[in-house]
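Subject: sequence -> structure tokens, single chain

Hey, anyone have a minute? Need the predicted structure for the following. Not urgent.
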Amino acid sequence: GQNSDSSQSDNTSSEKTVSGGRVGMPTVKANTGKKVTVPIKLDKNPGLYAARLFIEYDSNALQYNGCDNGDILDECEDNGDNGEVIIVVNNNGTEDSDKNGTLVTLSFTVKDGAAKGDYEIGIADKSELCNADEKLVIPEISGGKITVE
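Reply:
Had a minute. Here:
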């Protein structure tokens, strides 16, 4: 039966993703020339093992300094700069983390010449989160911003 084959492949593909969770950032205030940290928060965690987040920011106004691990996964690393940074966070063990809280904290410096106003910090659509079963986790994602005063 070809029909049963095709329906099986449909089933497996629909099970490759898990919807749930919310990933977002607050609005953070900062002054020109100062360092500022922006937490990426995870809420309603459906079970997370690793994430690769593409962070977009205005490199004319902001200098990216690095990332600090939050309290959900075990380690974070980053690469890239100049308006886009790739943050990778993952678990050391073999199981998902079901914690909520800070996934990772980003550190920026507001450049001396930056005008006052809002600078969006985005999480690009191509970002990927997955669980220990290697299923994609599809949360609601919302960016944040740095308000330079």
